[in-house]
Amino acid sequence: MGLSKEMGLFVGFVCYLVLGITGAYAAGDLGYHTFVVQSTPYTRLCSTKNILTINGQYPGPALHVHTGGTLIVNVINNSTTNITLHWHGLKQPRNPWSDGPEYVTQCPIRPGQNFSYRLIFSDEEGTIWWHAHSDWSRGTVHGPIFVYPKNGTGYPFPKPAGEIPIILGEWWKNDVMEVMETMLESGDEPEISNAYTINGQPGDLYNCSQPGTFRTTVEQGKTYLVRLINSAMNTELFYAVANHTLTVVGMDGSYLKPFNTTYVMITPGQTMDILLKADQPKNFYYMAARAYASGVGVSFGNTTTSGILQYKGYENPKNSSSMPVIPFFPFFNDTKSAMSFSKKPRSLASKEHPVSVPQTVNDDMLITVSVNIAPCANSSCSGPNGNRLSASLNNISFENPSIDVLQAYYARINGIYGIDFPSKPSPVFNFTGNVSDVGNAPFNATKVRFLEWNSNVQIVFQGTSLVAAENHPMHLHGYSFYVVGQGLGNYNNETDPKTFNLKDPPHLNTVGLPLNGWVAIRFKADNPGVWFMHCHLERHSSWGMSTVFITKNGKNVGERMLRPPANLIQC
Ligand SMILES: *[C@@H]1O[C@H](CO)[C@@H](O)[C@H](O)[C@H]1NC(C)=O
Ligand SMILES: *[C@@H]1O[C@H](CO)[C@@H](O)[C@H](O)[C@H]1NC(C)=O
Ligand SMILES: *[C@@H]1O[C@H](CO)[C@@H](O)[C@H](O)[C@H]1NC(C)=O
Ligand SMILES: *[C@@H]1O[C@H](CO)[C@@H](O)[C@H](O)[C@H]1NC(C)=O
Ligand SMILES: *[C@@H]1O[C@H](CO)[C@@H](O)[C@H](O)[C@H]1NC(C)=O
Ligand SMILES: *[C@@H]1O[C@H](CO)[C@@H](O)[C@H](O)[C@H]1NC(C)=O
Ligand SMILES: *[C@@H]1O[C@H](CO)[C@@H](O)[C@H](O)[C@H]1NC(C)=O
Ligand SMILES: *[C@@H]1O[C@H](CO)[C@@H](O)[C@H](O)[C@H]1NC(C)=O
Ligand SMILES: *[C@@H]1O[C@H](CO)[C@@H](O)[C@H](O)[C@H]1NC(C)=O
Ligand SMILES: *[C@@H]1O[C@H](CO)[C@@H](O)[C@H](O)[C@H]1NC(C)=O
Ligand SMILES: *[C@@H]1O[C@H](CO)[C@@H](O)[C@H](O)[C@H]1NC(C)=O
Ligand SMILES: CC(=O)N[C@H]1CO[C@H](CO)[C@@H](O)[C@@H]1O
Ligand SMILES: [Cu+2]
After folding, report:
1. Residue 423 CB–ligand 5 contact under 6 Å
2. Which residues of the chain have a pLDDT value below 70?
3. Rounded to an integer, what distance in angstroms lies between the CA atom of residue 223 and that of residue 42?
4. Hey, whose CA ends up nearest to atom 9 of ligand 1?
5. Domain check: are 308 and 379 in the same one?
6. Which pLDDT does position 472 carry in this prediction?
7. Structural domain that includes position 82
8. Whether residue 289 sits in one domain with residue 219
9. Strand partners of residue 147
10. Where on the phi/psi map is residue 313: left (φ > 0), alpha (ψ -120 to 50), or beta?
């Protein structure tokens, strides 16, 4: 009874919003949105190609909402590609139906179809984002979500004079879906991107890009809120603004104790809220981003994207010799600097923004995160020694099922997934030792792991040195988790827990697993549903570095998954 009431409310809400669209809400404001997926010509680096966009925009439209609000986004697929959208960092309490990853929580929206996503906000505040979650379409299909404090409450810092959304991205001259297909066919690393981008623009340091360089104007003495998103496909990035100190105040839609830094390291999937005080002489300054490339021998784009911060009242001289300086960056493989940044964030943990870190654990997992080598299916792979590259979690390489896991779970359809994703690695070896290959390819399988409702879960991700050790941005859907500890080498389950921060750890949805190291996360499994977990480096995810958690229902109605929406898509 309670459940059908839910449905009624949902349908009623949509109708109300559809009818009210011209009255209550201005375009781009709270409420109801239509996203048309289409193919749109864009020119970058002097070459034009059609890219997938939402409403013709790249980066895509911004969503604005207050903490605790609800949005409806109707996605109409007017392209020739299957697509789904994911609301990254949105917990979607009890509502995996609108989470988005294809073949995990839904079947793709095929050309000509549409699907209404219901975005339920709970405690997120700050910046999160949305992106496509089917094949590599997120390369161009992504945009920011600004979550403002609830009406009647404010920021835990002085109200900024303005906002500067900065979306870092990656651009290929070739079609990004073809880059993926070529990678999978060849079994090798993907072609590296031709440029990094700031708000869709490579910037002054690339040939044939200068006219479009992103520029923003600031007033001397004022403080701005930079909403930083790393939407890049395969690259962790350092970001900095020349001559300016960055004050990081939030990450992944949760506030932090403010800290100052001259650069940040942001992994794909992460977002940051940063205060930028315009406290320098009236001039113009570069902001820029370049790779943090941790993998030894893994090729990457060794270029720098830039945008311009211009002070009001300053006219830049016409002669090109007066270009501003590029900010200082750690060296591309400076893991020490990357880690020293990653260890700084601590939750604000104030009365208004409390934390609830599980102090005890009743579901404990150790999950190895590996790139692997597997036999070539067609005997002509260009991966290592004629093999193909693969990737795994606890030696299982995730395979997409034919029907999405959520639908199979809800309708009790057998044979779609296995329920025995392991809680411990097998084989056990010196994970970060001098081993390049344990000699066995991972198993292809669709295996899920059940979580008891309301259990306190701890996962220690253990990086391995197989094939090519690298920093892996591990992302969990349906939750934010507390990052209680991290370190280099093999996790020691006796000594390392003594170093855990159980008081004010950062509350993230994506965490960079240190190169040849480990990271420990904790969360309470209070969100029933089917939730994807994967490396946010797109090539690793495509190779199978993923798994699925199914959080069981609780006993009471408010502890169970919502019923499926009426417009559910069938595979
Ligand atoms: C879909 O695309 C076609 C052209 O391919 C266009 O005529 C039509 O207006 C588009 N529909 C929407 C809803 O944008
Ligand atoms: C969306 O799909 C439904 C069928 O699920 C269809 O009835 C409706 O006309 C579609 N709406 C648009 C705007 O394409
Ligand atoms: C916020 O609250 C004020 C009064 O408290 C009200 O006038 C205003 O309409 C509210 N805004 C929203 C978006 O609810
Ligand atoms: C920015 O810093 C550099 C050195 O760090 C300095 O040479 C330059 O003069 C500064 N620019 C301005 C406009 O203050
Ligand atoms: C950050 O630096 C500014 C000066 O640039 C200083 O006023 C502020 O107190 C510092 N904040 C922190 C948290 O260290
Ligand atoms: C990347 O470029 C820097 C100079 O900006 C250079 O020092 C470094 O060797 C390059 N690294 C690679 C792997 O190409
Ligand atoms: C970083 O790369 C340089 C070559 O560009 C190499 O000499 C150095 O050993 C690398 N450092 C680490 C920590 O891998
Ligand atoms: C495992 O999956 C990969 C990628 O989907 C495929 O190429 C390969 O043939 C599969 N291997 C087996 C043994 O099924
Ligand atoms: C694991 O490998 C590392 C690096 O080669 C080495 O220092 C360490 O002693 C090894 N640990 C064990 C238990 O063999
Ligand atoms: C701790 O790790 C050791 C080996 O590293 C293992 O034998 C033991 O089972 C682990 N203990 C727990 C409680 O996981
Ligand atoms: C699109 O999705 C449908 C439904 O799951 C599937 O049958 C079809 O193979 C997909 N098309 C492509 C090109 O992936
Ligand atoms: C390519 C394709 O199937 N396009 C269709 C997308 O949906 C619209 C209706 O919203 C159709 O008119 C297009 O033909
Ligand atoms: Cu990875």
Report:
1. no
2. 1-30, 317-322, 436-439
3. 33
4. 78
5. no
6. 98
7. 30-148
8. yes
9. 65, 126
10. left
Residue 432 CA: which ligand is closest? Answer: 9
> What are the pLDDT digits (tens) for 272-281?
999 999 999 9
**Is the CB–ligand 12 distance for residue 80 below 6 Å?**
yes
What separation in Å is there between the alpha carbon of 77 and the centre of ligand 1? 9
Q: Give residue 514's pLDDT.
A: 97
* CB distance 68 to ligand 5 below 6 Å: no
Residues 337, 382, single domain; the answer is no
Q: What is the pLDDT of residue 324?
A: 83
> Among 218, 220, 243, 308, which residue has the most ligand 4 atoms within 8 Å of its CB, making it the best to mutate?
243
Please provide residue 368's backbone torsions phi and psi, each rounded to the nearest 5 degrees: -80, 145
Segment (H or E) for 338 = helix 335-342
Angstrom distances, CA of residue 525 to CA of 214, 284, 315, 482, 549: 41, 48, 55, 12, 10
Q: Is the CB of 356 under 6 A from ligand 6?
A: no
| 151 Cβ neighbours under 8 A, 6+ residues apart | 66
Query: Contact at 8 Å (CB) between 188 and 389?
Result: yes
The CATH number for 272's domain is 2.60.40.420
Residues contacting ligand 8 via CB (< 6 Å): 377, 444
Q: Is the pTM of this model over 0.90?
A: yes
Q: Is 82 in the pocket of ligand 11 (CB under 6 A)?
A: yes
* Nearest ligand 6 atom, CA 300: 13
